C-alpha cells in the first residue's frame, strides 16, 4: 500500500526447498534438459508471512504447519514450472497442482519427455495438443470478440488439465453460432453450461481503498515506481487517464497516467512525491504482507486477495488466460480463481505467498455464498507502463 511513513512488516516463518541437480546417464540432449529442469532451481526461499495464516485457515482449512508446507511446495513448483516450460518448448502443454499435494503435474505432447519427468519425481500426462495450440485457438475467439462481444457467452479459457478451450454458455445454440463464425477449430473447444456471471467489481485497497474523482471507490493493487516516482497499479475500469485518485480522508494521492478497459483491465496512478511506495499488502487483520517479487504461481496454488470491501480472502488459482465477456466488453488474458470478492474490491492485490500475482478485475457471487473472481496478471501491467514493482 502507499503510506506516508515506513511501516513495520509482519513477522514471518521462513521455509526453503533445496534440490540437487541430476541428469540420467546416457540421456539424450532433450532428456538431459528436461531432467535438469526438474531439479535446476537453486534454493527457493519462500517465507510464509504470518499475516497469511488466519485467512488460509478460514478459507482453505490449512493449519499453520500445513500452510508452511504447502507454500514451500508451491514455491518449488513455480520454479520447476518455468524451467520445464523452457526445456520442453513446443512440447509444453501446461502444468498444475492438486489440492492434495504440491507435486507438479506436467502435460506434454512427447511421451519420452513424460517418462523423464516421472523419473525426476514429477507427474506427467501425455496429451494431444500443446499449450501453444490451445492458446492460438483461444486467440481466434478473442479476435472474434473484439468485433462484437458475444451474448450468452460470459467466459472462455484454456483448461490445461482438460487440454481444451472451455467456453461457458447460457445459450448453447447462440454460442455454437458464434464459434462457427469465429473460425476456431471445434475439436479444440468444449462448450459447458455457464456457472459464472462476471461483472466488474467497482462501487461507483496493496488492498487499501482509494477514491476516483471524489466519487467511485476501488482498491490499490501494488505500489510501483517509475523513474523513482511512486505510484500504484489497479484495475482499468476504476478510472481513466487524467482521473484523480484520493485517500479515504480526501488527501490527494495522484493522477491516473494510463488505463485500458475493456480489452485489458489495468491502470496505473502516479502518486505525489509526498507518498512512498511500500512493498506491502494490507491483510485486514492489523498487519501487512511484504511483496518480494512477481513469480507466477502454478494452477492449483493458493492465492489471497486484499480489497477494501471484503478485506482478505483466499482460494486457489483455477485457470490462466481466461476471456471474460463483461457487459462493457471483453477482457482477455485474465486468471480465474476460487476467491470471493464484491464491488469496491476492484483493483486490489492478488498474492501467492510473497509473490504478487495481479489486480482484481471482476467476478461472480459474493463472500457470503462464495464466488469466482478474475485478476489481471501484474507482470503485463508492469511491462506495459515501464513500472518497477515495489519489493522488500
UniProtKB/TrEMBL annotation:
Disulfide bonds: 218-238, 304-314, 340-367
Protease in keyword set: yes
GO molecular-function term, one example from the UniProt record: serine-type endopeptidase activity
Signal peptide: 1-27
BP GO terms, sorted: proteolysis
Gene3D superfamilies referenced in this protein's UniProt entry, alphabetically: 3.30.300.50, Trypsin-like serine proteases
GO cellular component: a single term: extracellular region
Active site per database record: 237, 265, 346
Any coiled-coil regions, as ranges: none
Record's keyword terms, sorted: Disulfide bond, Hydrolase, Protease, Serine protease, Signal, Zymogen
SUPFAM superfamilies the UniProt entry points to: Trypsin-like serine proteases
InterPro entries: Pept_S1_alpha_lytic, Pept_S1A_streptogrisin, Peptidase_S1_PA, Peptidase_S1_PA_chymotrypsin, Streptogrisin_prodomain
Domain Peptidase S1A alpha-lytic prodomain: 129-185
Protein family per UniProt: Belongs to the peptidase S1 family.
Protein name (database record): Serine protease
Annotated source species: Streptomyces monashensis
Amino acid at each position: 500500500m502507499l503510506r506516508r511513513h515506513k511501516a513495520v512488516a509482519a513477522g514471518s516463518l521462513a521455509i526453503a526447498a533445496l534440490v540437487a541437480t541430476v541428469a540420467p546417464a546416457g540421456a539424450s540432449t532433450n532428456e538431459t534438459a528436461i531432467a535438469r529442469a526438474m531439479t535446476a532451481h537453486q534454493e527457493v526461499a519462500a517465507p510464509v508471512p504470518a499475516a497469511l495464516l488466519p485467512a488460509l485457515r478460514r478459507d482453505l482449512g490449512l493449519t499453520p504447519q500445513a500452510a508452511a508446507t504447502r507454500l514451500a511446495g508451491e514455491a518449488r513448483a513455480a520454479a520447476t514450472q518455468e524451467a520445464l516450460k523452457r526445456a520442453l518448448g513446443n512440447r509444453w502443454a501446461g502444468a498444475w497442482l492438486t489440492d492434495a499435494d504440491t507435486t507438479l503435474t506436467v502435460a506434454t505432447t512427447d511421451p519420452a519427455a513424460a517418462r523423464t519427468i516421472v523419473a525426476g519425481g514429477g507427474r506427467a500426462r501425455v496429451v494431444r495438443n500443446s499449450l501453444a495450440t490451445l492458446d492460438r485457438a483461444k486467440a481466434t475467439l478473442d479476435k472474434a470478440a473484439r468485433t462484437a462481444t458475444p451474448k450468452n457467452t460470459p467466459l472462455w479459457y484454456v483448461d490445461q488439465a482438460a487440454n481444451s478451450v472451455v467456453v461457458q454458455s447460457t445459450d448453447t445454440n447462440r454460442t455454437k453460432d458464434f464459434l462457427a463464425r469465429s473460425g476456431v477449430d471445434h475439436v479444440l473447444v468444449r462448450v459447458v453450461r455457464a456457472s459464472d456471471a462476471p461483472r466488474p467489481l467497482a462501487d461507483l485497497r496493496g488492498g487499501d481503498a482509494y477514491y476516483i474523482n471524489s466519487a467511485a471507490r476501488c482498491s490499490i493493487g501494488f505500489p510501483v515506481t517509475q523513474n523513482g516516482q511512486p505510484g500504484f497499479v489497479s484495475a482499468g475500469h476504476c478510472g481513466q487517464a487524467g482521473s484523480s485518485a484520493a485517500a479515504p480522508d480526501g488527501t490527494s494521492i495522484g493522477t491516473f497516467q494510463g488505463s485500458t478497459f475493456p480489452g485489458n483491465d489495468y491502470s496505473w496512478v502516479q502518486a505525489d512525491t509526498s507518498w512512498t511506495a511500500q512493498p506491502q499488502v494490507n491483510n485486514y487483520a492489523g498487519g501487512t504482507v511484504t511483496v518480494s517479487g512477481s513469480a507466477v504461481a502454478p494452477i492449483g496454488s493458493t492465492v489471497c486477495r486484499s480489497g477494501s470491501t471484503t478485506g482478505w480472502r483466499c482460494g486457489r488459482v483455477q485457470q490462466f488466460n481466461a476471456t471474460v465477456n463483461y457487459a462493457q466488453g471483453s477482457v482477455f488474458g485474465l486468471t480465474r480463481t476460487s476467491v470471493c470478492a464484491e464491488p469496491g474490491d476492484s483493483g486490489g492485490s492478488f498474492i501467492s505467498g510473497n509473490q504478487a500475482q495481479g489486480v482484481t478485475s471482476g467476478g461472480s457471487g459474493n463472500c457470503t455464498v462464495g464466488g469466482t473472481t478474475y485478476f489481471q496478471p501484474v507482470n503485463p501491467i508492469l511491462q506495459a507502463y515501464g513500472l518497477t514493482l515495489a519489493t522488500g
